[in-house]
Amino acid sequence: FFFHPHAANRDSSTSRGLGDVYKRQAFHELFHAYQFHHEAASSIGFLQFGGPWLIEGGAELFSELILYQLGYQTEERFSSQMELKLLSKEEYLSGTTPLNEITGQGAYYLGAWMTVYLISEVGYEVYLVDFYEDLHTVGVEETIKKYFSTDIPGVIKNFNNFLAQENDILLMRLNEVLDD
After folding, report:
1. Residue 6: CA atoms inside 13 Å, Cβ hemisphere, count?
2. In angstroms, rounded to a whole number, what is the distance separating the alpha carbons of residues 129 and 31?
3. Would you write out the chain's pLDDT as a tens digit for each of its 180 residues?
4. Among 18, 22, 75, 126, fewest CB within 10 Å belongs to which?
5. What angle do CA 145, 41, 22 make, to 5 degrees?
6. For the whole model, what pTM was predicted?
């Protein structure tokens, strides 16, 4: 897993201080450790099938969530950080590049919202336990089929419909998902 102080600076304009940036980065990497705790875990590249959207998105969401749950940021700050991750939403939805082909910051931020969508469909505990276990034992394609009765393009299409909602509605859905 990668941690470099200069990589952490990508959020410096929206952070209360450099300490928050380091905490966010540390929790992001800690969630990667969780993602690969399963005995059948393979390399991160294996689970980044067609791009980092699935793995990086989960780590991005949970780094924000852990900061909030541990009291390092308020609920308002958590919502604000998640809303910032929607800045590329319109460009993504009007474009032709599917989520699993996006790289860079967009994959992290949109992937965080994909994670919200996945949790809204299968539940918090199933996502954290069963979903990751299946990712490691049967792979990305079969896990998506098992939980969503569709293939990767199908789940991305469903996510796009979810993402097309107004930001206020998405933030309400985020709170509903996390309150379960």
Report:
1. 0
2. 13
3. 444 444 444 444 444 566 778 899 999 999 988 887 766 665 555 555 556 888 899 999 999 999 999 999 999 999 999 999 999 999 999 999 999 888 888 999 999 999 999 999 999 899 998 998 888 888 888 999 999 999 999 999 999 999 999 999 999 999 988 886
4. 75
5. 105
6. 0.85
